[in-house]
């Protein structure tokens, strides 16, 4: 099967690690928060494995990396609050699009394909990042974890994003970068594509080298 999906009417993307490389900004914000909390800094490699699971788990794993005795909910909740304040103040000075996203997504939009994002970021933060990388004009739906009662890894988050596009599970493809995304698509009954720069997954998962492969010319 080619990476393109013949019946696709919409494409839903994960954000961090899939469409955008935001690791430097997230790490920078985390270290700004940790400085306020008198914690030592974390590295990008310590932050990377926790991406995609929401801010609470992201902060918990970052704290675990530098102060494993402080991962109780009370401290992590406060650290999350400080991190989100720092991050929201300037979320994307170093964030960049992956691969051909800057050209491919407008082309997909112009071809009549509805585009959305399903992310464990908060919706407002996700829109800030999307605007910073210039994709806000081509996205119909951005659904963060605060916009659902069932955030990923619950497949209902993805299905709700599809519904916001006025589409059903068999009319979309979901594009992600980690094993959680694979499971979300499988459990939602949605076609899946895995970006080539993502985390290792099973060999039978369809890879995507360029986003243009999702369009008519890629089939």
* CATH H-level superfamily title of the largest domain: HAD superfamily/HAD-like
Question: Which structural class do you get from the secondary structure elements?
Answer: alpha/beta
Give average pLDDT, whole number.
94
* Assembly of the depicted chains: single chain
CATH architecture of the largest domain: 3-Layer(aba) Sandwich
**Radius of gyration, whole Å:** 17 Å
What's the helical proportion of residues?
Answer: 25-40%
Shape: globular
Order of strands, main sheet, comes to 5-4-1-6-7-8
Briefly, what CATH class of the largest domain?
A: Alpha Beta
User: In what range is the share of β-strand residues?
Assistant: 5-15%
**CATH fold group of the largest domain:** Rossmann fold
How many separate domains?
Answer: 2
Termini separation = 9 Å
Give me the number of helical elements.
Answer: 8
Task: Provide structural commentary.
There is one protein chain. The chain is an alpha/beta fold. It has two domains: 10-21 and 95-218, 3-Layer(aba) Sandwich (Rossmann fold), CATH 3.40.50; 23-89, DNA polymerase, domain 1, CATH 1.10.150. The protein is built from eight helices and eight strands, in the order E-E-H-H-H-H-E-H-E-H-E-H-E-H-E-E. Strands 5-4-1-6-7-8 form a six-stranded parallel beta sheet, with helices on both faces. Strands 2-3 form a two-stranded antiparallel sheet. Strand 4, helix 6 (123-132) and strand 5 form a beta-alpha-beta unit. The longest helix is centred in the middle third of the chain and has 17 residues, at 73-89. It is globular, with a radius of gyration of 17 Å. The model has no long low-confidence stretch (mean pLDDT 94).
């Amino acid at each position: 099967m080619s990476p393109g999906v013949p019946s696709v009417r919409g494409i839903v993307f994960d954000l961090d690690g899939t469409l955008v490389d935001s690791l430097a900004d997230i790490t920078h914000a985390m270290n700004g928060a940790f400085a306020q909390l008198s914690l030592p800094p974390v590295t990008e490699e310590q932050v990377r494995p926790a991406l995609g699971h929401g801010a609470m788990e992201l902060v918990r794993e970052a704290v675990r990396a530098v102060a494993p005795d402080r991962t109780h909910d009370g401290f992590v909740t406060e650290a999350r609050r400080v991190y989100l304040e720092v991050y929201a103040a300037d979320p994307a000075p170093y964030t960049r699009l992956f691969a051909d996203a800057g050209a491919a997504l407008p082309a997909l939009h112009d071809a009549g394909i509805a585009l959305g994002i399903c992310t464990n970021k908060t919706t407002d933060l996700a829109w800030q990042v999307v605007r910073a990388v210039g994709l806000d004009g081509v996205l119909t739906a951005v659904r963060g974890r605060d916009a659902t009662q069932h955030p990923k890894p619950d497949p209902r988050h993805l299905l709700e994003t599809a519904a916001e596009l006025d589409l059903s599970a068999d009319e979309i493809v979901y594009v992600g970068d980690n094993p959680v995304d694979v499971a979300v698509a499988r459990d939602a009954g949605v076609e899946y594509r895995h970006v080539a720069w993502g985390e290792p997954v099973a060999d039978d998962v369809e890879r995507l080298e360029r986003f243009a492969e999702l369009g008519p010319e890629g089939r």
